[in-house]
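Reproducibility note. Readers wishing to regenerate the assembly model reported in the main text can use the exact inputs given here. Chain order matters: entities are listed in the order in which they were concatenated for prediction.
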Amino acid sequence: MAMTIHVDVVSAEESIFSGLAEFVVLPGEAGELGILPGHMPLMTRIKAGTVRLKLPSQENEELFFVAGGMLEVQPNRITVLADTAIRGKDLDEAKALDAKKKAEEAMATRSSELDYVRAQAELAEAIAQLSAIQKLRKRSH
Amino acid sequence: MASGKEIRSKILSVQNTRKITKAMEMVAASKMRKAQDRMKAARPYGDKIRRIAANLSHANSEYKHPFLTKQDKVTNAGLIVVTTDKGLCGGLNTNVLRLAFGRIKELDAAGVSKVSVACIGNKGLGFMQRLGANVVSKITGLGDTPHLEKLIGPVKVLLDAFSAGELDVVYIAYTRFVNTMKQEPVLEQLLPLSGEQLQDDQAHSWDYLYEPDSKVVIDELLVRYVEALVYQSVAENMASEQSARMVAMKAASDNAATVIKDLQLVYNKTRQAAITKELAEIVGGAAAV
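Running the prediction on these inputs yields the following structure tokens for the assembly.
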């Protein structure tokens, strides 16, 4: 039997593939990567493209599309961290700016100093309400 | 005693309330299942990236990322507060906000000059605004499914500040999902990455091959690692939200049922009293004739 290597393909939102494979082809940043069992430790980015897995005792190759991500290779294990979002420096930057801007807009009406007393009062009130509700519930049973 | 008509309309209004709470309970119950599935689906990625980050921290790379270096003195802190967008879920948000508020106060007492807050969820934003905290980024209206794409921006603001040395420590506050009946608010240190999060099993010295180079790869990996942690927190928070709402709405429906029972009793008593009174009047009238 041919040698196999354990492969995990996961994205932040779900696990895509987990199992043994004989040979893996990935779109590495510097070009296509073909990885066989026993490869030395490697870590790289991968580009958007297809991940091809040659599974043992199966004619057809398993194909997955990834929008980019990271690849880690250990001699007996390959892990592909697939991105769910399309990433890019500018794109991420725009998102960060957007989040910042929204926060600034929201903060336009704020008071300038940390209002501890008020916050504490607010929390205390909410907690008192909750405990009152609990007591009421106990009494009614 | 209130008249029969008044009590009847009161009963009707409580019945309507119960219908609403009952419906919300059922909606929350069905959403809870899905939210839990999503939370579980996010776990493999978190486990994998944690292992890789652990390997990485033990590999002998010449490059040390700022996320891994501890600051001796904390002068500026960051805080990510994960809350729900909507209310009516019991004490969920109150508990997590109390925890976050306690930490802000502690930091303030310890001489931290500024606490920058990133808000995920409407409730936390509202609270932090009223508190007058320094909100640097926010994301609200996440809906029922957490999407990593939406979280990148708000988290990046704090990560960038940390990398630039503007923040010395970053915390995250969220509600951890234990089971349907139990959710607990937690506050964890996100950055710098602490040693206990990065357990490793290999002892000998080795290093990865990096493509294109170690700095680029490590930078990207650690950003993803932190994002995965935040994503996991948000997923847990959403599962907690639905369960807490279900439990709260069930309690509300039960309470409404008790109120209706009590009102019905009062109504019956008044009705009977009215009939008795009328009979007594007729009998009295007949006797007088």
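We highlight two features of this model. The mean pLDDT of chain B is 87. The longest strand of chain B covers residues 169-179.
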